[in-house]
Structure formats: C-alpha cells, structure tokens
Amino acid sequence: MLKNFTSNFLLSPIDLEKIHSALYFLHIEELKNICEEFNLDLKGNKVAFINRIFIFLKEGKKIKSIEIPPASKAAKNQEYPFSADTLILHGNYKNDYATRDFLKSLIGNHFHYTAYGIDWIKKRWEEGNPPTYLEFANYWQKEFENRKKNGLILISHKNLKRIILRPIVKCYLMHGKKNMTRQKSSSMTY
User: Fold this and answer.
1) DSSP 3-state assignment of 69?
2) How would DSSP label each residue in 32-76?
3) Helices and strands in the chain: count of H runs, count of E runs
4) CA–CA–CA angle 7, 152, 51 (5° rounding)
C-alpha cells in the first residue's frame, strides 16, 4: 500500500476538507490532469475524479470507477418534479438554480451546495438506495449544524484553489513523485 501521502505533508483534517471542497471548483480537464499525475483511473464524471483524488490524498489508496446500479438511475424521457418525496436519481439530479431554490425551500436560505452533500448523494446512488429530496434536506441540515458546531470554517471558492489545492499538487509534483517512485521499487503493493 502506498504510504499515506497526506502524512508526508502534514495535512490536518480541516486542510483535507478544504482541499476536498476546492476540488469541486476545478474544471474537469484540471481534475483529469491531476489524476494522470497520480496515475489514477481516468474514467467517470467530475465527482468520480474528485473522489479518486481526495481518497488518494487522504489515504494513499487508488480506487477504480464504480458503476451506479439501475435502481439509482433516472429513466430516460421521464419527468421528475420537485417534491419532498421525489427520489434524487443519477442522470436527473443537477446542481442548478432550480434545484438549489427547491432545496432552499426545504432547508432554508442558508442552503448551498457542498462537497459533503454531493458525496452523500453519490454514496446512496452507489448503494442502490437513492435518497428523496427530504432525506437529503434532513441530512444536509444535520451535517451543516455539526460542522458549524465543530468550527469547520468555509473560505471562498476563489481562494480555495489558490491557497490550498495548487500548492499541494505542486509539492507532490516536485517532491512526492520522487518519493512515490522510491516506494514503488521496494516491496510495496498497490
């Protein structure tokens, strides 16, 4: 197993959360480039790339693409109106203004898209158990309160890229790649 990349660079859980949030503001081509540099799987969508990069930075593990089961996929040419009981299905859900406005009506004006919210929905899809909008609203509010109570402070997305993610990737490219190469020549397994 690769040695934990983050332990080599002393990233705190809060730094990891900031990096995870910052990844969502990168373009898909930037994410693919990072995956290439880390020799990670290049299949999937933006969320898949983000999860692969984050898990690699956090745990040093390389994960493969995961298929979404049919129970979590939207049927083609079918309408899914916004209601508390409507399932959030892969292929139909969008992080757009209409969805945000609907979620604000369930949660409140403090709602905003978050990495932890997207990850939770994706996890439910992968399990074949897509959530309803109400289940998501309840989860999001509870998680928001927990993070607020524990002092996880959000910084603007504009600064996340500049101050968190790019220096980490640059550091890896300058130093980590050599360290990873040395580890490969020993008896490490991936």
Assistant:
1) coil
2) HHHHHHTT----S-HHHHHHHHHHHHHH-------PPPGGGBPPT
3) 10, 0
4) 55
What pLDDT shows up at residue 111?
A: 92
Consecutive 10-residue averages of pLDDT for the chain (190 residues): 45 81 88 91 86 87 85 93 96 92 95 87 93 97 84 52 61 55 34
Q: What is the pLDDT of residue 190?
A: 26
For position 153, what pLDDT does the model report? 46
Distance CA 180, CA 162 (A): 25
Question: Cα 41 from chain centroid?
Answer: 15
Which pLDDT belongs to residue 121?
94
Angle of helix 46-59 versus helix 28-37 axis, rounded to 10: 40
Scanning the structure block, which residue is given the tokens 């020549």?
Answer: 185
Q: Cβ-count burial of 63 within 10 angstroms (0-12 exposed, 13-18 middle, 19+ buried)?
A: middle
Output the CA torsion sign for 26, 27, 28, 32: negative
pLDDT of residue 171: 62
* CA 84/CA 136 separation, integer angstroms: 9
The three-point CA angle 70-106-148 to 5° equals: 100
* Alpha carbons 174 and 181: distance in angstroms, whole number: 12
* Integer Cα distance of 70 and 75 in angstroms: 9
> What are the distances in angstroms from CA 65 to CA 44, 47, 83?
7, 11, 31
